[in-house]
Write a structure and sequence with these properties.
With about 325 residues, the protein is mainly alpha-helical. Helix 2 (about 35-55) crosses helix 4. The chain is about 75% helix and about 0% strand. The chain contains 11 helices and no strands. The longest helix is centred in the C-terminal third of the chain and has 42 residues, at about 235-275.
Amino acid sequence: MGRRAGAVVLAAVAGMAVAVQSRINGELGVRLGDGLAAAVISFGVGLLLLVVLLPATRAGRRGLSALRAALGTGALRPWQCLGGACGALLVFTQGATVGTLGVAVFTVAVVAGQSGSSLAVDRAGIGPGGRQPLTGARLTGAALTVVAVLLAVGGRGLEPASLALTVLPLIAGVAVAWQQAVNGWVRVVTRSTLTATGVNFAVGTSVLLVAFAVSVAVRGAPSGGLPTEPWLYLGGPVGVLFIAVAATVVRLVGVLVLGLATIAGQVIGAVLLDVLLPTAASHPGPRTVLGALLTLVAVGVATLGGRFRPLSGRRRP
């Protein structure tokens, strides 16, 4: 019981680290004047770290060999290695929107999208866990997260153009569910969390570099310059650490408890950041705090879905 409780706390702390990553990449995007450039730097630094770790560890070398073999035999399909593209979208939205929306509203929007998308991903059986039935609790949780994001952004006094930015983290949240599913397959087939993380960062960095090259050709170079503060380059390593912690904790608490703990930590961390270390954009009022709390309630309701009968009316075995 003590190990389980410790694992839940560790998962929640990892979720809070994601909120910190959002603040880092958001500030980097503001300094550079380009959210896409901030995403390239964040993913690139994470990839450099993994390029060092993968060949330097036995698990990394074995995972790379297993990856090549699985792609050659068809045990792993190429499209199952594209989860990093969704991660690239998430990191881009951090750099492009957090400076305007604040970490709290950004996080609530991501969780709302992720909750709804998870229903479809589970139902389709895209992840290694197979098909998961739809239940009233899961649908209720997804609906509550939509209400939460509307509550959080309401009354913020945002301009219509800024309010429309919440669509980006919503879409990113939708993509995150698919990313977790396919990255899970890479981890299962290679038996290496480090390898799955490396594939994620390699694909994400490649996508971002192509997008950034097109952006520079069309719009020109970013208007800002590279900041000198070292902490603004830690977004990528934070992402690597989060995935490593999640892979370790899931064996002790299971996927549902892991998801609940990390999202709870993410939402709480986002609100604390906006309250304790406010920026020009982060001024959470009572509606934002209530929206964050409602998100926690919604995630809790959704995780109870496995205890209820599927909506098809058939009894679960």
